[in-house]
Amino acid sequence: MTTLSGQPLSEAIGYSFSNANSAPHREHSFYPYTDNGGSTLGITGSDFAILAGDTRSVAGYNINSRYVPKVFKIGGDDETGDGAHIVLSVVGFAADGQALKERLDAVVKMYKYQHGKPMSVRACAQRLSTILYQKRFFPYYVHAILAGLDEEGKGALYSYDPVGSYEREQCRAAGSAASLIMPFLDNQVNFKNQYIPGSGEGHALEPKKAEPLPRETVEQLVRDAFTSAVERHIEVGDGLQMMVITRSGVEEIYYPLKKD
Amino acid sequence: MNHFPEAWGRPRDDVYGAYNPLYLQTTGPKAHTQSPAVTGTSVVAVKFNGGVAIAADNLASYGSLARFTDVKRLRKFGESAIVGFSGDVSDMQYIDRLLESIDIRENYSTNGNTLNAKNLHTYLSKVLYKRRSEFNPLWNHILVAGFDEDKKPFLSSADLLGTTFSAPHLATGFGAHLAIPILRRLFPEETPLESISKDEAVAALRECIKVLWYRDARSLDKYSLAVVTEAGIEIQEDQQVEAQSWAFAEAIKGYGAQVN
Amino acid sequence: MTSIGTGYDLSNSVFSPDGRNFQVEYAVKAVENGGTAIGIRCKDGVVLAVEKIITSKLLKPGSNKRIATVDRHVGIVSAGLVPDGRHFVSRARDEASSWRGVYKGPIPISALSNRLGSYVQAYTLYSSVRPFGVTAIVGGWDSEAELAVDGQVGSGPKSGSGGKVEGAKTGGPGLYMIEPSGLYWGYYGAATGKGRQAAKAELEKLDLSSGTLSLVDGVKEAARIIYVAHEDSKDKEFELEMTWISSLDGPTKGRHEEVPKDLLEEAERAAKRALEGEDEEEDATKGNSNETERMEE
C-alpha cells in the first residue's frame, strides 16, 4: 500500500495502487519428474562391451508395462537401429530417457552425414556429457551408460550422472537396483576382496589382479546380476535386454525374467 | 473529493479495505496449471485379433461433484484411430482441437490422412512432454488405439509428464488398479492376440467398466465404447452398465460408524 | 485500350484520368489465358471443375492438382497464374483455420469469400505490390446440422441449443467467385479462364436458379461444360479435374473431396458423347469442316 505524497502517514486516507512487487512468489505444485524404476548394467571386455537393462516400467507400485526397453542403439541407419555401433542405456525418468536417446541419436546421425565417418565412442561420450550439462538447471533425470568399442577395438563404457559428470569404467550398474548389483560387480569383475590363495598372511595377501573377462563369462554375470536383483527389488523384472557390441556390430539378446 | 487527483475514483481503503494486487497481477511469476479442474476418470483398452477396443465412462467430475454426465472422452482421429482421455477435460478439448487442425491439414493433400495411431501417439507424447518441460502441463493421461504402419493393432499410453508405454491391455487412473487385474486374468500377457476375439474384448471392457462403477467413486454407469478394426471405427456413446449386482455391498462392514 | 502507354498503367494505386486501375485490368488478362475453371451450385452440393492444360508430356498424369482443399467443407479452384493461386489458397487455409481458432467451428463460405475478397482487394491499393493474377472460385457446403463446437464433449441441452427455432433451415451450398480487383459475388454457376464465355453460355442454359439440379447431374454438366469450353483450344491436351461437396447426407457428407474415379470417367465419357452428338449435327449443316480440322492436327 502506498500513501500519497506530502501527507503525514497518520492522517493519510489509504488508497490502493497497483504494486507488483507486493505479490508473493508462489511455488509450483506440479512436479515434472517420476521414477519409472528398473536397472541397467554395463560390462566391458577386451574386444566387446555388453549393456543390459530390464524391461519393466513402473509408476509407484504399479507396473505400467512389462516391455519398455531402456537400452537403445544410437546412430543406426534406420528406425530399427541396424548399423549402429554405439549403445545407450537410460534409467530413471523414462520420458527424459526417451528424449535424451532421441537427441543423441540425431547428433550421432548428423555427425555421420556431416563428416562422412561414424562418430567415435569417445566423441559421443563427450557430446552426451555436454547434452546433459546443458540442462544443468532442469536436468534429464536419468542415469545414462554409453557403450561401444574404442579406437583400439577394446570395449568402452562411459557412465554419467544426471548433469553430465562422466567417466570411463570397466563396469557400472545404474538404476534402482544399482546398490544391489554394483558390489557384486566389484567382486566378480574387478575382483575386489579376492586374493590369491596362499600368497601370504594378513596384509601380505596378494590381491587377485583384474583381467578382462571373456564374453561368455560376462553374459552369465549379467544374467546372474539381474536374476538376483529381481529377487530382491520390486521394480526390477519381466525381461532382460542385452546389447552385445563387438567388431561385427550390435547383437540384441532377450532373456525372460520373473514377472512377479 | 480531496486534493490528490491520482486518488480520485479509487476506492478508499478505510471503506473497502486494501486492494489485493494478487487478483490483477501483470508482472511476477505466471501461474500455470497446478492441478486439474474438471476431470474424467479411467480409460480402459484391450487389443484383440484384428483391432483394439477402448472404453471410458461419460462423466466429468469437478472434484467430488459429478459435474457433467454426457461427456465424450473417446475422440476419433481420422478413420482408424481413437484417443481416450482421462484427466482434465479442458485440456482434452484443447488437444481435440489440435487433432482436428492436424486432420484438416492432412486432408489438404488428396491422398488423405496418412497418420496412423502410432504416429498420433508419438506426436501426442511429444506435445505432453514439451508442455511438462515448460512447467505448463496438459493434465491428461491418454490411451491411443488403432493400427501401426504394418496394420497391426496398436495400443499405447502417454501421460502428462510425457511418459509412454505400451501393453496388450492398458488402463489409466483407477482402472490401472481395478481393470488391469481383470484383463490380465481374462487375457494373460502371453496370450497370442489371434486367440482374443472382438466380442471377448468388448465383453471384458464392459465388465471392467462395471467394476469401476462399483468401486470408483468418480465413475458413472453411462459409458462410451469404441472398437477400431480394419473396417473402421464403431463408436457407441450411450452405453449403460447392465446386470449390476450390489449383493457384495451387504458384506462390506467395518467402515465408519458401523463396525459389525 | 487507348490509354495504354500514357503512364497510368505502370503502377498499382494510381488511377488513370478516366478512373481505371490498369494493373488490375492486366491481371484480368492473365486470368483470361488460364485453363477454364467452373463451379456449379447444385441443390444438394457444389461441383468444381477445371480444364488443366498439359504443359509437358513429362508431367505425371493426375498429379499437380489444381483444385485445393481449404477446410473440410471448402474447395477452391482458380484460373490464371498458378503460383498466385497457390498463395491465394494458402491465405484461404489460414483464414479458415483462424476462424476455427476464434469461433470453434467451420467458416461459412460467405465469410471466407468476404475475407478473401478483402485480401485480394488490398493488393490493388499499393504501388509496392501487384494484383493477384487469378480469379478464384470458392465452393463449399455450410452444414445444415446443428453444429458441434470443435472439441465439444457433451451433447448439449436435449431441447436444442439456445435460441434454436424448430424446423428452421440453415446451411446449404455456397459458391463465390473472386476477381483480381477483389470484387466477389455469389453465383449459381461461375466460370473463369480462357473458355469462360462458352462455359457461361452453357451454365445459363442449366436454369440453376430454380435449385433443381442434383449434384450428380451437376458433375456431368460440369464435365460437359469443360469439354465444350475446350473446343476453342483443341490443339492443347488437357486433363479434367473435378471435386465436389455434398450435403451431410450426400456422398461426401459435407466434405470437399475429389469426384470418385468411376463417376469422373463416366461424366467424361458422357461429355465426349455429347460433343460428338453436336459435331454430327454440325456435320449435317457444315459438311466436312470437321475433317479438315483433324487433318490440321
TrEMBL record, chain A:
GO biological process: proteolysis involved in protein catabolic process
A GO MF label: hydrolase activity
Gene3D superfamilies per record: Glutamine Phosphoribosylpyrophosphate, subunit 1, domain 1 (3.60.20.10)
Gene Ontology CC entries for this record: cytoplasm; nucleus; proteasome core complex
Protein origin, superkingdom: Eukaryota
Signal peptide segment: none
Location in or out of the cell: Nucleus
Name under which the protein is recorded: N-terminal nucleophile aminohydrolase
Organism encoding this protein: Aspergillus ibericus CBS 121593
Lineage: Eukaryota, Fungi, Dikarya, Ascomycota, Pezizomycotina
From TrEMBL, chain B:
Entry's Gene Ontology BP terms: proteolysis involved in protein catabolic process
Keyword flag Cytoplasm: yes
InterPro entries: Ntn_hydrolases_N, Proteasome_beta4, Proteasome_bsu_CS, Proteasome_sua/b, Proteasome_suB-type
Keywords: Cytoplasm, Nucleus, Proteasome
GO terms for cellular component: cytoplasm; nucleus; proteasome core complex, beta-subunit complex
Places the protein is found: Cytoplasm; Nucleus
Family statement drawn from the similarity comment of this UniProt entry: Belongs to the peptidase T1B family.
Job of this protein: Non-catalytic component of the proteasome.
Name of the protein in its database record: Proteasome subunit beta
Source organism of this protein record: Aspergillus ibericus CBS 121593
From TrEMBL, chain C:
InterPro entries: Ntn_hydrolases_N, Proteasome_alpha, Proteasome_alpha-type, Proteasome_asu_N, Proteasome_sua/b
CDD domains: proteasome_alpha_type_3
Localization per record: Cytoplasm; Nucleus
Primary location group: cytoplasm
One Gene Ontology CC term in the entry: nucleus
Keyword Cytoplasm listed: yes
Domain Proteasome alpha-type subunits: start-end pairs: 8-30
One GO term (biological process): ubiquitin-dependent protein catabolic process
Chain intervals for the UniProt region annotation (Disordered): 269-297
Record keywords, A-Z: Cytoplasm, Nucleus, Proteasome
Pfam families: Proteasome, Proteasome_A_N
Subunit structure: The 26S proteasome consists of a 20S proteasome core and two 19S regulatory subunits.
Family as reported in the entry's similarity comment: Belongs to the peptidase T1A family.
Protein name stated in the entry: Proteasome subunit alpha type
